[in-house]
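Re: the 142-residue chain
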Amino acid sequence: MSNAEPTRRPHLDVIQPADFPRPKGYANGILARGRTLYVAGQVGWNTEEQIVSDDFAAQFGQSLDNILAIVRAAGGEPGDVVRMTVFVTDVTAYVDARAALREIWRGRFGRHYPAMTLIGIAELFEPGAKVEIEAVAVLPEP
C-alpha cells in the first residue's frame, strides 16, 4: 500500500461536465479503453473467509484490499479501477467513519477516485459483514 500519487493511466479519462460541481471522493464519469475486469462484491474477510473485525473502517479497508488483490492478479493496479458500488448496512456508520475511511482510501488509491455509488441496505449475505464493495477495472491492452 502506498500514499503516492497514482500513475496517469493513458487509457482512462475522467469526465467532468463544466457546469457540475467538483466531486469529492468520486468521479462523475470515466471514459475507458482496454480490457474490462468485473470484480464481484468483496466483504471484509481474509483468505480464510473470516470477517477481520467488527469495526466498520477495518472491514472497508479489507474489502478494498480484496478488490485490489483481484485487480493485481489480472495485471492491473489501483488506478485501473473505474467504478465501485459500495453496499453498507449502516449509512450512519459510514458517515461517522469518514475520517478513517479517507486515510484507508489514500493508503490504497492515493488521489485516484473512480465513479462510485453508496447504497444503504438492510443486510448482507455474509454474517457480520457491514460493507460489500463491487468494482469494475479497465486494464490497458497488453
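The longest strand covers residues 35-43.
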